């Protein structure tokens, strides 16, 4: 089973990907966190990724993304299914993704889109906080009220620039311009299931299970 889960920021795709991976013993691939892991490695590729993320702060170029993707795919046993969390993000990546999967003897079985509107996305993301030290995530009003110090390490709790309203709007714009065409591309192939992300976590998960039931 090879599943892709996409949706705007704050739709809950990370949580749902994790739940799905646990249920069917799938590998959960989140390219963002995998790239951060690669950046910690003392290899030519690791050093290059680290530099991009910490010094030049540009988007990871296609060549590196593809190298990292191949590296990750090569580490997963063939019989194990995968849930791709938030990838591919644009049409260019989608075309590469299809070809690369094919080379690894896999195909995309289903794309799950968890949809929420712009206001909901902004409302959810603007509650995110993160510890400056250990990077533990908190949700304002749920995990914390007005604490300033991290419960784990005592570090300062802050809001990422990307998570303030303007940052979220910017990312939503990119999502609309670049990721929505990916969804339309796979819709033509009849591979897309759309789910209302405003429902509860359990309801959304129930609908995902229905969407993958016949795979
Ligand atoms: Zn901390």
Features:
215 residues; alpha/beta; five-stranded parallel sheet; three-stranded antiparallel sheet; 8 helices; 8 strands; 48% helix; 15% strand; binds zinc ion
Stretches with pLDDT under 50, minimum 5 residues: none
Note the gap between the termini.
Answer: 7 Å
**Main sheet overview:** 5 strands, parallel
Number of helices: 8
Shape: globular
Strand order of the largest sheet: 2-3-1-4-8
Beta-strand proportion: 5-15%
Q: What is the average of the pLDDT values?
A: 94
Question: How would you describe what is shown here?
Answer:
By secondary structure, the protein is an alpha/beta fold. Helices cover 48% and strands 15% of the residues. The protein is built from 8 helices and 8 strands, in the order βαβαααβαβαβββαβα. The strands form 2 sheets. The protein has a 5-stranded parallel sheet, sandwiched between helices. It has a 3-stranded antiparallel sheet with strand order 6-5-7, with no helix packed on it. The N and C termini lie close together (7 Å). The mean pLDDT is 94. The structure holds zinc ion (ZN). Zinc ion binds next to loops. The site of zinc ion has 8 residues, from loops.
């Amino acid at each position: 089973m090879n599943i892709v889960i996409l949706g705007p920021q704050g739709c809950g795709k990370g949580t749902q990907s994790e739940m799905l991976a646990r249920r069917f013993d799938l590998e959960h691939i989140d390219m963002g966190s995998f790239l951060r892991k690669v950046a910690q490695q003392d290899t030519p590729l690791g050093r290059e990724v680290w530099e991009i993320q910490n010094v030049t702060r540009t988007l990871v170029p296609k060549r590196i993304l593809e190298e990292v993707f191949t590296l990750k795919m090569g580490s997963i046993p063939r019989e194990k299914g995968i849930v791709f969390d938030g990838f591919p993000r644009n049409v260019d990546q989608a075309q590469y993704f299809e070809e690369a999967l094919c080379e690894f003897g896999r195909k995309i079985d289903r794309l799950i889109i968890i949809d929420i509107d712009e206001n909901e996305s902004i409302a959810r993301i603007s509650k995110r906080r993160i510890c400056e030290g250990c990077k533990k995530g908190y949700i304002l009003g749920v995990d914390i009220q007005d604490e300033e110090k991290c419960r784990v390490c005592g570090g300062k709790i802050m809001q990422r620039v990307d998570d303030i309203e303007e940052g979220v709007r910017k990312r939503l714009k990119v999502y609309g311009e670049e990721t929505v065409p990916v969804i339309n591309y796979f819709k033509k192939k009849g591979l897309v299931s759309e789910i209302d992300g405003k429902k509860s976590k359990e309801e959304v998960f129930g609908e995902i299970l229905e969407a993958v039931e016949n795979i």
